[in-house]
Amino acid sequence: MVPWLTVVGIGEDGFFGLGRAARRALLDAAVVIGGDRHLAMLPPRIRARREPWPKPFDIAPIEAYRGTPVCVLASGDPMLFGVGATLARVIPPAQMRIIAGPSSLSLAAARLGWPLQDVSVISLVGRPLAALNAHLREGVRLLVLSRDGKSPFEIATLLNERGFGATPMSVFESLGGPAERRIDARAQTWRDEAVGALNLVALECRAGSVGRSSSSSSLPLTSGLPDSAFESDGQLTKRDVRAMTLARLAPSPGALLWDVGAGCGSIGIEWMRSHPSCKAIAIESNPRRQAFISHNRDALGVPGLQLIEGRAPDALAGLPAPDAIFIGGGVTIPGVLEACWSSLREGGRLVANAVTLQGEAALVEWRRRHGGTLTRIALSEAEPLGGFDAWRAALPITLFDVIKPVTGAPPTSSEPA
After folding, report:
1. Are 60 and 89 in contact (CB under 8 A)?
2. In the chain, which end has fewer C-beta atoms inside a 10 angstrom radius, N or C?
């Protein structure tokens, strides 16, 4: 099948910066669709009908041209945070051809001398600025796709607040075109300078004494963030138990977690920090703790965590089916375990913690009915006692985990063989 749709990546150097195949596709097209800026780059000899993207943005009109030679214009590499990736979800590969141009990321890395494979990329287009917080670590190189001309100042402000005021910033405008410009400064000296809407920000993260949260630079990549990383009223799964709980939950890319009785949100937040595509829904009925969740998800870089203000099991109705569920509080509430179990996807994992005898009894009974494993966690920490030190034991915790069987498959233990 000959592709009827061609997506052309065009740079700031316009039509004459395109290769032969891209120019030929535009000359042969019956319709060219793109943003106003991209359409204005085409010379008069492109005789195809020019159609700007509808507002609000929608790819549906393209389907009406199926079978007609159509070109779609996109910035740089259409498959990198671009419309090509969006179209690829609905147009079969045999019907679409992608002619990529150099991305702004490639151009920025070339200007900086940074190996692109060693750089993390964050897009703020349509995403909260707080998403940047998950990536701030000493020595990390970041390329940030800005949403508008205000983004560099907002990024500098956030870096200062998070203790990364010493970070060198390079802001690139109109990369690859005749109006290309570069501005270099440190976050702590950045001023609210006028910057073009088309810009990219390069950061080489450096922690310093400026700001109120310099401990951000020491947050680990592994599960089990320090308890001090979370604002809470004490309703918090403590660090060591949290690390064990997350190991049992076993996050995987793209998976959805329900954090039931979320407290300050620590489990759902760390679940989402484990991979950029992980998703989580925190269910919490206490208004004060809801405020903690809202603060913590932004401070720790996962603003996409969804907060449901309500009490299980009623608050669970209508939520998308999860791949994993953690119950941090409420296993003794009638209907909670049943509602969670019935909503969990087949092959999904349910993990619950209990401190009280009544909670433990509920988990013992659930294990009798559905299998799984029970683990007793008893931790002690050395604390001063007079002129000496002694072990002070925390309340023991019962951890339960079970995998929901797949219909037609033999029962399986939640523990690997």
Report:
1. no
2. C
